[in-house]
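Prompt: I keep going back and forth on a fold encoding question. Comparing notes only helps if you start from a blank page. Show me how you would write down a chain together with its backbone fold. Please set it down just below, with no commentary around it:
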Amino acid sequence: MIDVQNLCKDYTFKRKEPGIRGAVKSLFTNKRELIHAVRDLSFHIDAGEIVGFIGPNGAGKSTTIKMMSGILTPTKGSVLIGGEDITRHRKEVVRNIGVVFGQRSQLNWDLRLGESFELLKHIYRIKQSDYEETLDVMDSILGIKEIIDKPVRQMSLGQRVKGDLVASMLHSPSVLFLDEPTIGLDVSSKYALRKFIKEINEVRKTTVILTTHDLGDIQELCERIIIINHGVMMEDGNLSQIIDRIAPFKTLVVEYYDEIAPDHPSCEMIEHDGNIAKYKFMKNDTTAADLIAELSKLRPIRDVSIEEAGIDDIIRIAYGE
């Protein structure tokens, strides 16, 4: 569905010294600096995938999404969507994609929500029957008809995000780009957003590319993640496989009856507080069951639990911090 090859985006900006002296000096001398926002990105996304596209602030995520959706023209490289080059055939390609930017809205501030939908219906030349069918499907997922007669300027942030999601799906796109759609949303709104993504993926087989800093979205929705930093590809693959490779360990939390915690040769005691001890062990070296059995021979155990490596730690390591 999406094929990105050697994608690059460079920006040039003037570097000016501070103050009046710097302003006058800049009239005669131009110091320009080249910024490589995206550097030689290549990846392929199959139809029906939900892919998490993540990275720290300034990594180049939004720039890449804008190039993939036809808003920006790449300095170098190509983006094919459905086999069509979006740079050369922009009008034809954008009819099959939807975009939601969490910090911007495509809804008309001065109109009712339903009027914004009607306007988009005419822009995309959607048949009335198809429009009504799509609206019914979106209402079953997000309950959008409850607010369809409400002016956009009077909506809460969560309601506007719902409106933008429906607006992006009115023309039944095969690809949906979601650029940080959960910014500022409460728990119930995030739940509605995740439900929406799952439903359109299962029912309509929509390919979804999601950028977010909410790692809960990644864990719940995405089997595959692409991580970039400083415009460069850091990771691309199955989320569970990346976690196993970056953090091939687990933590065994053991509560003893007394405060004496024994050491063990095949693992490292990383914490000891009172009668609770934490042991870090490698998944390939031993199992939790074997470790518990051996520790129980050394001291009587009251309770145990196992902690997996947290996804926030995994992502931080992958970012290269």
In short: The mean pLDDT is 85. DSSP finds eleven helices and 14 strands in the chain.
